[in-house]
Design brief:
Elements (H helix, E strand, L loop, with lengths): L1 E6 L19 H15 L7 E4 L3 H8 L6 E2 L9 H8 L1 E2 L2 E2 L9 E6 L3 H11 L12 E9 L2 E10 L5
Parallel strand pairs: 1-6, 2-3, 2-6
Antiparallel strand pairs: 1-7, 4-5, 7-8
């Protein structure tokens, strides 16, 4: 099973008196989301489950995929890594035995620092603040090697690389 972490594309600055969750994508962010969505759609399984933070910028990023998606308050900014892993049906060693829907993979559209912390936990078993660029994906894969579960890094890709 794969876990794809996608940070929302470039968003507007927080306007005075505005709320963080209402921040919209910039025109550049809309283009980033479209480019990455096209790349992802050419590679994702048809049954990939898509979950996203309900913040406007993550919701708009995820909508670029044109797939069914589920907005989960547990993925809002400053979510804890464990909340993201539980929402995705993963543990620190990979997917849980019963991740819910029989998806081959889960795509999570979320925020920093949570996405970087999840990547660090899964790849190094340490809670560290790894950077995930705006609009970028980190594609992780769970596999079994020598009878033991492990998580490997499949792809890291930023929208400016497309």
């Amino acid at each position: 099973m794969d876990l794809i972490l996608w940070r929302h594309a470039e968003a507007e600055l927080l306007p005075e008196g505005g709320t963080d969750v209402a921040r919209r994508l910039t025109p550049k962010g809309e283009r980033q989301a479209q480019r990455m969505a096209a790349w992802l759609n050419s590679r994702l399984a048809a049954n990939c489950r898509v979950i996203a933070s309900p913040a406007v910028r993550t919701h708009r990023t995820a909508l670029a995929l044109g797939r069914d998606l589920h907005l989960l308050p547990a993925l809002l900014p400053d979510a804890q890594p464990q909340a993201l892993l539980e929402a995705a049906g993963w543990s620190l060693t990979g997917p849980s035995p019963d991740p819910g829907a029989d998806a081959a993979s889960v795509l999570v559209v979320g925020h920093q620092p949570t996405l970087g912390r999840v990547a660090a936990l899964l790849l190094s078993a340490q809670d560290q603040a790894w950077a995930v660029k705006k609009g970028a994906i980190w594609w992780l894969r769970a596999r079994e090697r020598h009878g033991r579960p492990e998580v490997t890094l499949h792809t890291v890709l930023a929208p400016d690389q497309l």
